[in-house]
Every structure is written in C-alpha cells, then in structure tokens.
Amino acid sequence: MTPESPAPSAGRAETAGTAGRPATADTVAAKSAGTADTVAATRQALAEVGYLADEPAALVSFLAQHLGKPILVEGPAGVGKTELAKAISRASGRELVRLQCYEGLDEAKALYEWNYRKQLLKIQAEGREDAFDDVFGEEFLLTRPLMQAIASPDPVVLLIDEIDKTDPEFEAMLLELLSDFQLSIPELGTIVATTMPIVVLTSNNARELTEALKRRCLYLWLDYPSAEREIEIVRLHVPELDEKLARRLVEVTAMIRELDLKKPPSIAESIDWARTLLLIGAEDIDRETFDRSISILVKHRTDIDLVAERVGLRLEDEAKWPSPRSSSEKAISRSARAISLHPPGAGRRARQPGRYRCGA
User: Are strands 156-161 and 182-185 parallel, antiparallel or unpaired?
Assistant: First the structure.
C-alpha cells in the first residue's frame, strides 16, 4: 500500500502494506504466484478445486488475473456466482475477503470507521487541547472488508456479494476502488494498493446496475447449467450417486425450474437433494420419493403446493407410461395410451342406443 499520507494498519489481514509505488502489471505478475498462464489452465485449476467452469467463466477468470480488472457476475440466485469467487481464491492460493451487501450498507461497514471509544479515552487521558490531532492515526482506525483488501500486503480475492441490494450511491463510492484500486480517507489521504486484488462482484439482477460500474468490469452472465453439465456437477460433489439416478434428478429439477416459482431450486439444492436420495437409499425418483424430499428443493409453501401438483402428477404419469427408448416402443406406447383412453367397443357401445332408436 502506498499512502500519500500515513496509512492505516489492517490487523491480521489488515497489516499495512509495504510503502512503494502503486501496483502495476509487473508487480502484479511478480506477486501472483499460482496464476494460470492460459484459459485452459485456468479452467483446469478451477476444476481441481471443485468448480466446473464453462468456457466464458474460465476466460473471464483468466482475464481478471492478467488484466487486473474486476469481474461483474450476474444471473439468477443459486447458479454458482459466489462459488466462482471462492474457487478463484482456492485455485490462486489467495485469501478471500468478503463484503456481503444489503440494503442500507454504508461506508462505515464497507470501508472503515474510527474507534470513537478509544479516541475519547485518548483525549481524556492526554488532557491537552491539541490531543484531537493525535486521534486520527492508524491505531484508531477500524478497517472493513474494502480497506482490508486494499491494505493487505498479500494479493487477495475481494468478493462484493449481491451488489444489486445496495443503492446507486454505494456503487458510486466503489468506482475509485474498481478503477484505480485506491481509497481516499479525508484524515489520512489516499491509500493505494501495492498488490492487485482480484475483485468479483455478484448480482442477482434485482435492479439495473449503473453504467459507470459496468464499464469498469469484465462481464459474465451465469445461468442454470445444461443437463449434462449439471450431471457432472452433481456427480463431482456426490460421486457415490448412480449416474442413472443423477440424470433422473437433473431431469426432475429441470421440470421444477420450468414452473413460475418464487425461488427455483439452485445447483446447491440439487446437490443437497442428491445427498438426500443417497442417504434414504432411493433407487429412483417416483411420486412417493419426490413427496418425501420435496422440501430439499423448494422452500416456499406456495411453491411446494404448485410443484407437488404439477411435477408430482407428471411423475405419476411417467410411472404409468415410462418413456420409450426405441421407435417401436414409442409406437406401442402410443397404441397403449389410445387403448387406455378409448377401449375397443367403447365407441360402438355409445352409438348402439341411437342405432336402435333409428331402427325403431
């Protein structure tokens, strides 16, 4: 960290950095041990720590480490946005510093605040008029996540989670950090990072973010994965699960996500459901198994009723009429369905009374 005036201390992960020039591409490269040299290597590194990234996610992760630009990851809740930042932290060997955003978040909780109690005790103990000038130093500063990331002597991953829950004023406060990796404290001056953090911002797209913030970031949209990719993810985390059952689980989860729910099941909940099926010894997902474990996937009462009605009935139908595999099986299945709906002779029996009346 390079202060233009005295710099704040940052405690455990908050120890003030070595004075010097601001971080550059050379200094970042020198201090970013563990940074992959190619997109393929980045993807492999993420996979080794348990995150199966697709090509866009691997590319953005690679560019963030080499270009020194923040990543803005948007998408529905539960698709792995936060987990991407954690995986980058594990893969690069950097400490993760997390700022969880919420409505009403201000600078005191995100940047720093002064230890007013300690300042007051200092003033009372000194008993001098000029004691006020001595209480705005490093020892009286309480650093928060953004300051910790900037002040850290070692490269870190800074996760600003759910940025869309804050207001545009908070976004404006972040612009200096995202563009120049520095923060300004009126009493101390400008604090410039000597190690470049990897910054990951996540958003559930609850509101439109400002263009000024987007312009400073690499952009990544994460959606629910394809069926094949989700099967890979589930089996990575629950390798004991049979592949056939994992495929069935993903198919049913996709049915649920097609419905208009308050909260569709996330990937993490799919993994939890896989573990649940394993623990209860399920060999297939029938209506009974589904009803027993539906609360693992769906967390709102109205959603549970809707899913039980729609998906539960589909499971019953599939149990009666299993999906055919070959074209001949499909033809037999269609014939069987037709026979079930219109048994032979049913039409003739329905028309017989009329024919007799005409003959009479």
Answer: unpaired
As a whole-number percent, the residues of the chain with pLDDT over 90 amount to 52
User: Do 47 and 149 belong together in one domain?
Assistant: yes
183 and 268 in one domain?
Answer: no
Helix locations, the chain, DSSP H: 25-31, 39-48, 55-67, 81-92, 107-110, 116-126, 145-151, 168-180, 211-215, 227-237, 243-257, 267-279, 287-297, 301-320, 327-341, 346-359
Establish if 353 belongs to a structural domain. Answer: no
The structural domain count of the chain equals 2
The reported pLDDT for the residue numbered 113 is 83
Question: Is-contact 273 307, C-beta < 8 A?
Answer: no
pLDDT single digits (tens) 25-46: 444 443 444 567 899 999 999 9
The answer to the question of residue 257 being in a domain is: yes
Cα separation of 73 and 221, whole Å?
6
Same domain, 122 and 190: yes
Six token digits for residue 238? 């629950």
Ranking 83-87, 90-94, 327-331 by mean pLDDT, the lowest is 327-331
Residues 125, 24 within the same domain: yes
Domain of residue 155 covers 2-221
In a domain, 102, yes or no: yes
Shared-domain flag, residues 200 and 237: no
Q: How much is the CA Rg of the chain, to the nearest whole Å?
A: 29
Q: How does pLDDT run across 249-273, given as a tens digit for each residue?
A: 999 999 999 999 999 999 999 999 9
What DSSP designation does 325 have? -
Whether residues 101 and 163 share a domain: the answer is yes
* pLDDT greater than 80 at residue 348: no
pTM of the predicted structure, to 2 decimals: 0.74
* Residue 54 sits in the same domain as residue 127: yes
Which pair of structure tokens corresponds to residue 103?
């409505």
Q: Are strands 182-185 and 189-192 parallel, antiparallel or unpaired?
A: antiparallel
CA distance 94 to 87: 10
| 347 found inside a domain | no
Q: 14 — phi, psi (to 5°)?
A: -120, 10
